[in-house]
Amino acid sequence: MRKISNTIFRILLLILTGVTFAALTFVIIFIVKEAIPTFEEVSLGDFLFGREWLPLDVGTGHMSFGIFNFIMATLYVSFLAMIISLVIGLGASLYLSCVASSKVRGLMYPFIDLLAGIPSVVYGFIGLTVLVKFFIRAGVHTGSCVLASAILLAVMLLPYLISACSETLLKNKEKYLKAGTSLGVDQWYTVSSVVLPASWKSILTIIVLAIGRAMGETMAVMMVIGNANLFPTLLGKSESIAALIALEMGTAVNGSTHFHALYAAGLVLIVLLFIINIGINLIRDKLIK
Amino acid sequence: MRIKGALIRIWAYAGIITVSAAIVFLFVFVFIKGASTISWDFLSQSPSGAVLGEEGGILPAITGSLAFTLTAVVIGAIPAIATALYLVFYCKSSKSEQVIHLVIQCIAGIPSIVLGLFSYSLFVRDLNFGRCILSSGIALGVMILPFIEVRAEKTFREMNMTMIQSAYALGCTKSHTILTVVLPACRGELFSGIILGGCYAMGATAPMIFTGAVAYAANPTSIMKPAMALPLHLYLLVAQGTTSLDMAYGTAFVMMAVILISNALVTIYARRRQRAWNQQ
């Protein structure tokens, strides 16, 4: 009896795992399959490097699917957000790992984690009512701009960056700080010249993961970036790939090239993430000795 | 040498002050702006007005969000925990473990809007479900599955091995050990993973925007019907412009309060469990 229930439980788990695995693989294959028909109409080069996005035939007989501006906007916003977030987040991680007592740390971690829980629409909403208004006052035309969405994204990335960075820094501090202190070296000098350099490698991995999050973020970016098919500039409007999909998904006709092109844009987003991921892993060892 | 150290020190303090200020600002801003809108009527009535949502309340959005979140948690959490259990306690081939991890990482990397697009064309279009809670729930469930799986797996791997070994030594079968020792011991961590995953699903707009959430619906009665959702409601109120801004602050207030309360519960629970462990 015991043996039978044991076997049943095992089989149940195996089935559930199998179903999960199959379903998740299916999602990936489905996306690829829906994206492929795009390239019967548009060549890959035109799709990636074209700057014209005219998905509907408005009587001129001319349609065009080029997502170069969207790709650049996605990259621009994500990297800018990453830099802002890193400047603030790494500082905060230094505080948490090298200054704060474990009691303070225990209080600060859940406090900072609150940021991760805030829905992205709420971020977008506050971005519209605070950041965009600020930019209008500062003289930017409509207030919606790449910089505004990058600032917003930077705040959204902070919790992931801080929790991962401070964990790495803490590990390295415990490893090196005692040796430094017993040699009579100032604590902050040890931190700046030993602990921080020793952590760069892990920090780079954390950065890649955070960029992935930034590139996929939809609502907050969409609400403050202005949504215009333009090449991104710091204070100009633009449109990210995720925003493109969200804005046009509802109006694209089923089975049309437009619809497949949105899938292809989504696929480009996933592939970009992969390339950045693999690329950084390859050059990481050369970048940091 | 002194200067370098001092600069790093200034950086550390500036960083933590900026972060804390940002968090306090976000919550205080929404709570102050939204407080005047919150009333029993706001929480218990349906939206109304010439421009929808301008007057009335947000009750169907609250119940709708609950329905979306529950569906997502059921769809996401059960396979996530089962997979974690399998990987930690049963899987012996490191190769299949790697493949499963790879797929889970891939899914975690898919932007939520692409999951929405997937669910839209497969369930809403091809399988003819139409826009409904189930279509969105599946997209949201797939979205939170990696989140819960990673946490659950970490919890299982960090479990006190002697407890499991003693159970085996007493002649318990694996399934009996898992059901009576492992799962109860990890209950708190699993619940907090599920609650935080649920918050994540509740706040996500992108996967449900064309798959099941609509501008107006009654309280949800079946998972095959569309429903309102708090984040989409907020988005639409903002998109309508200035007349519904107060209502938007009120809606944001409700969501922020839910986040604050569930995070506080999870933290307090974890703290208490930790203390109990230390006393043992």
Commentary on this structure:
The complex is a heterodimer of chains A (289) and B (280). Helix content of chain A is 76%, strand content 1%. Chain A has helices at 2-35, 38-41, 44-49, 68-98, 102-117, 120-137, 146-182, 187-216, 219-224, 241-248, 257-287; strands spanning 53-54, 64-65. Chain A is globular. The termini of chain A are far apart. Chain B is mainly alpha-helical and 280 residues long. Chain B folds into 2 domains: 1-35; 40-278, MetI-like (MetI-like fold, Orthogonal Bundle), CATH 1.10.3720. Chain B has helices at residues 2-35, 40-44, 59-90, 94-109, 112-126, 133-157, 161-169, 174-185, 187-203, 230-240, 245-279; strands at residues 47-48, 55-56. In chain B, strands 1-2 form a two-stranded antiparallel sheet. In chain B, helix 3 crosses helix 6, helix 5 (112-126) packs across helix 6 and helix 7 packs antiparallel against helix 8 (174-185). At the A-B interface, helix 1, helix 4, helix 5, helix 6 and helix 7 of A face helix 1, helix 3, helix 4, helix 5 and helix 8 of B.
Structural class of chain B: mainly alpha
| CATH architectural type of the largest domain in chain B | Orthogonal Bundle
For the report, how would you describe the main beta sheet of chain A? 2 strands, antiparallel
Low-confidence stretches of chain B: none
Give the overall average pLDDT of chain A: 84
Percent helix of chain A, as a range, is over 70%
For the biggest β-sheet of chain B, the strand order reads 1-2
Which oligomerization state do the chains in this entry correspond to?
heterodimer
In CATH's first tier, which class of the largest domain in chain B applies? Mainly Alpha
Topology:
The complex is a heterodimer of chains A (289) and B (280).
Chain A: H1 2-35, H2 38-41, H3 44-49, E1 53-54, E2 64-65, H4 68-98, H5 102-117, H6 120-137, H7 146-182, H8 187-216, H9 219-224, H10 241-248, H11 257-287
Antiparallel strand pairs in A: 1-2
Helix pairs in contact in A: 1-11, 4-7, 4-8, 5-7, 6-7, 7-8, 8-11, 10-11
Chain B: H1 2-35, H2 40-44, E1 47-48, E2 55-56, H3 59-90, H4 94-109, H5 112-126, H6 133-157, H7 161-169, H8 174-185, H9 187-203, H10 230-240, H11 245-279
Antiparallel strand pairs in B: 1-2
